Structure formats: C-alpha cells, structure tokens
C-alpha cells in the first residue's frame, strides 16, 4: 500500500523530460491506467447509451429463450410422436408374437393329427397285410392238406381197385363233373 501512496505523493515530482521509460510497478500504474481508460470511454462513448446496449442484449437473450422454447416444444412433440409410434410397434410386435404362437400351436396340432392319421392308416395297412398273409397261409395249408389227402385217397384207391372198378369210378366222376358243369351253366 505504501507504493500506491508514494506514487500519488510523487506525482508532483516528475522526472525530467529527457528520459522516457516504462514504469513496471503494477500497483503504481494501475490507477493511472484505469483513469485513462474511463476517460476515453466517457469521451468516445457519449453517443452510445449503456441502456441501449443492455436493451439490445436483453432482446437477444429473450429471442434466444423464445427460440429455445419453440425448439423444446417441437422436440417434445416429436418425442410424443416417437413414443406413440413405439407403443404402436410394440403392440403390433405383441400381436405378431401372439399370432405366431397360436400359428405354431395350430401347426403343431395339425402335424400331430396328420401323424396320428398316417399312423392309423399304417396300422390298417399292417392289419390288412397280416390278414391277407394269414389267409394266404391258410389257403396254402388247405391246398397242401387237400393234395396230400387226394394223393392218399388215390393211393388207397389204386391199391384197392382193380381195372374195371377203376374205369367205373372214373366214368362216374366224369359224369358228376359233367352234371356239375350243366348246373353252373
């Protein structure tokens, strides 16, 4: 503080004009610099009113706030639209999911039913094949039994019959076959 008072006290004692230099003492030169700056501002700033500057600044700030509010309102409207679209898409996705699950269940039931029908048909074919094969086996056994019985009867007849009896039996059998033929025609 002593330097400041010294600089004001020594204002009357300026050094001689023969030398020019810079005073590097900040505390001593600061009040002088401030007074020069304030004087220049007052002299040149007479036409510029501080209240006009403040009013212009206030209007710019108000315009910026108004624009920000408008942008905020537009952003909120867009946000609400986006939320509505999101809800709609979520509902559609849920509907697709439900429809997909019900379609899967329906396809599963159809597949189970068709598989059941196919198995039932295969079971029927199997049973028919078994019955056919059983009938064929029974017919083959009957035919063999009949052939063996016929061969046994022929063997017995051949051993028991003589030629004359043999010829009469053949004639009687031919007559019976002829009668049976007439009946069937």
TrEMBL record:
What Gene Ontology terms describe where this protein resides (cellular component)? proton-transporting ATP synthase complex
Question: What protein am I looking at?
Answer: ATP synthase CF0 B subunit
Q: Which domain of life is it from?
A: Eukaryota
Localized where?
A: Membrane
Report membrane topology. Single-pass membrane protein
Record-stated family? Belongs to the ATPase B chain family.
Coiled-coil spans in chain? 72-99
Transmembrane domains' residue ranges: 32-54
Q: Which CDD domains match?
A: ATP-synt_Fo_b
Task performed by this protein: F(1)F(0) ATP synthase produces ATP from ADP in the presence of a proton or sodium gradient. F-type ATPases consist of two structural domains, F(1) containing the extramembraneous catalytic core and F(0) containing the membrane proton channel, linked together by a central stalk and a peripheral stalk. During catalysis, ATP synthesis in the catalytic domain of F(1) is coupled via a rotary mechanism of the central stalk subunits to proton translocation.
Quote one Gene Ontology molecular function term. proton transmembrane transporter activity
Q: Which Pfam families match?
A: ATP-synt_B
Q: Which UniProt keywords apply?
A: ATP synthesis, CF(0), Coiled coil, Hydrogen ion transport, Ion transport, Membrane, Plastid, Transmembrane, Transmembrane helix, Transport
Q: What GO biological process, any one, is recorded here?
A: proton motive force-driven ATP synthesis
Q: What is its main location?
A: membrane
């Amino acid at each position: 503080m002593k330097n400041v008072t010294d600089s004001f006290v020594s204002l009357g004692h300026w050094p001689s004009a023969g030398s020019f230099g810079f005073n590097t003492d900040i505390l001593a030169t600061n009040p002088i610099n401030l007074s020069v700056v304030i004087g220049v501002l007052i002299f040149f700033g007479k036409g510029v009113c501080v209240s006009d500057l403040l009013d212009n600044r206030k209007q710019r700030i108000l315009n910026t706030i108004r624009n920000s509010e408008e942008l905020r309102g537009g952003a909120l409207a867009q946000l609400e639209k986006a939320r509505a679209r999101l809800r709609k898409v979520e509902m559609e996705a849920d509907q697709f999911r439900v429809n997909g699950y019900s379609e899967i269940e329906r396809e599963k039931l159809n597949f189970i039913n068709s598989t059941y029908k196919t198995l039932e048909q295969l079971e029927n074919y199997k049973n028919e094949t078994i019955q056919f094969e059983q009938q064929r086996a029974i017919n083959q056994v009957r035919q063999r039994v009949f052939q063996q019985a016929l061969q046994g009867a022929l063997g017995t007849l051949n051993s028991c019959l003589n030629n004359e009896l043999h010829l009469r039996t053949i004639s009687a059998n031919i007559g019976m076959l002829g009668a049976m033929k007439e009946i069937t025609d």
